[in-house]
Specification:
seven-stranded mixed sheet, globular, DUF169 domain-containing protein, DUF169
Length: about 240
């Protein structure tokens, strides 16, 4: 897979006004010195959208849940009560604990988790997934592309969770099992203030992207009247 070919195809399919996707990956090398981010680490994605790479670890991430869902620490003991009794995202703390047991958050052995716009990368080597910050029209294209070569009902999955769990945790787990699901996220009210009101996250694990890379130009994103009208609207 050639990253420059994909960028060319993406620009042709969605137009120049569509933001390039953001890649994320783990390594032991610090790619960029990043200041500590208090609260939700997705605040730091504004820098990434502007072209900077950020390198996260347990010292940079200020949120205990963020440290946990990115694999740098064990679950903080306060999380079940906090998510249920304060944030009110689950009816009981026990439901939070059960949710965490179900997804089996993996621990990373790497020192850093990096985020960078794909035009800042030389290749897709070691990338866990691609994060698209998508409007409804862009989601239409991404979802239709994802379903182009499969009839699986869970091709695009929408499990509720924190921004970091829906983007990072689920993608890492999907890669580990060579899975085919993409993930729609940013439904968590705690992450939404850090992005425009019309954006959701759409994440493609590399285990799935290595297939979708080859189907992009075959799909409705090229040479169809219906998508052409949507592309025009995206770029108005």
């Amino acid at each position: 897979m050639d990253i420059h070919t994909f960028m060319t195809n993406y620009r042709e399919a969605f137009g120049e006004r569509a933001e390039l996707p953001i890649a994320f990956w783990y390594s032991d090398k610090q790619e960029s010195e990043t200041d500590k981010i208090g609260g939700c680490f997705f605040k730091g994605l504004q820098q990434v959208r502007e072209g900077k790479t950020i390198s996260l670890n347990s010292d940079v991430i200020g949120c205990g849940g963020g440290k946990f869902y990115t694999g740098f620490t064990e679950m903080p003991i306060h999380v079940p009560n906090f998510v249920s009794l304060k944030e009110k995202y689950k009816k009981t703390p026990e439901m939070v604990t059960d949710f965490i047991k179900q997804i089996q958050v993996p621990r990373t052995e790497k020192a850093y988790l990096h985020f960078a716009r794909i035009d800042k990368l030389a290749s897709f080597d070691h990338v866990e997934g691609l994060l698209f910050l998508a409007t409804p029209d862009i989601l239409s294209g991404l979802t239709t592309w994802a379903f182009y070569d499969t009839n699986a009902f869970d091709t695009v999955a929408t499990p509720f969770g924190s921004g970091c769990s829906s983007v990072v945790t689920l993608t890492v787990l999907e890669n580990q099992k060579d899975g085919k699901r993409c993930f729609l996220g940013f439904f968590d009210p705690s992450v939404r203030p850090h992005f425009e009101a019309n954006l959701l996250s759409f994440t493609i694990p590399m285990s799935r992207f290595k297939e979708m890379y080859h189907t992009m130009r075959e799909s409705c994103l090229f040479d169809t009247h219906a998508w052409g009208k949507i592309k025009e609207r995206i770029n108005e």
